[in-house]
Design goal:
By secondary structure, this protein is mostly helical. It folds into two domains: 2-57, no CATH class; 95-129, no CATH class. The chain has helices spanning 3-16, 31-45, 77-87, 109-112, 123-128; strands at residues 100-101, 117-118. A two-stranded parallel ribbon has the order 1-2. 0% of the residues are buried. The mean pLDDT is 89. It binds 2-acetamido-2-deoxy-beta-D-glucopyranose (2 copies). One 2-acetamido-2-deoxy-beta-D-glucopyranose binds next to loops.
Length: 129
C-alpha cells in the first residue's frame, strides 16, 4: 500500500493495537493464508476462547446469536438436546429401522457391521466386540 494507507494503519494500530500483519500480499487468492494467520494468532493468544468468528468488515453480525444461553438447563440430557434442536428449528427424523438398538443383541460380526448402535454391554464385552 501507499504511504497514506501505511500511516492510517499505524494510527489504527497505535490507537487500538488490533492489527496483525504477515509477509504475503493481501489478495483474493491469498485469503486462505490470511485465514490461517488469524487462526494461528487465535490459537496462540486466545487458547481458551470458546468460539471465534471470522467476518468481513462489511458484515452485520448479530452478537445475540453467538451466545446460545437462552434455554434453561435441565438435568435430563436427552430431553435437553431435544429442546435445543427444537429451539434451533431442527425437525425430528426417524432413525433408519433397526440400526439404533436400545436393547442388547448377541454379537455377530456380520450383523454388527451394519448397525450404528447397540446398548447395554459391560466394558469387557465392548472390548471383545
Ligand atoms: C500471495 O502472497 C505471496 C507473498 O506475498 C505472493 O508472492 C503471491 O503472489 C500471492 N499470491 C496471490 C495469488 O496473490
Ligand atoms: C487457559 O486455561 C488454562 C486451564 O484452565 C489456564 O491454566 C490458562 O491460564 C488459560 N489461559 C489463558 C490465556 O487464559
Amino acid at each position: 500500500g501507499g504511504g497514506a494507507v501505511r500511516l492510517t494503519l499505524e494510527e489504527e494500530n497505535s490507537l487500538h493495537g488490533d492489527l496483525i500483519q504477515q509477509d504475503f500480499m493481501d489478495t483474493y487468492n491469498n485469503l486462505t493464508l490470511k485465514t490461517l494467520m488469524g487462526m494461528e494468532w487465535v490459537s496462540k493468544h486466545c487458547p481458551n476462547a470458546s468460539y471465534v468468528v471470522k467476518a468481513d468488515s462489511d458484515v452485520f453480525l448479530n452478537l445475540n446469536y453467538l451466545v446460545a444461553q437462552r434455554l434453561s438447563v435441565i438435568n435430563m440430557e436427552d430431553c435437553f438436546v431435544g429442546i435445543c434442536m427444537h429451539a434451533l428449528g431442527i425437525g425430528l427424523t426417524d432413525s433408519p429401522w433397526g440400526m439404533f438398538n436400545m436393547y442388547r443383541l448377541e454379537y455377530n460380526a456380520c450383523r454388527f457391521s451394519r448397525l450404528v448402535m447397540v446398548h447395554h454391554y459391560q466394558p469387557d464385552e465392548l472390548l471383545n466386540i
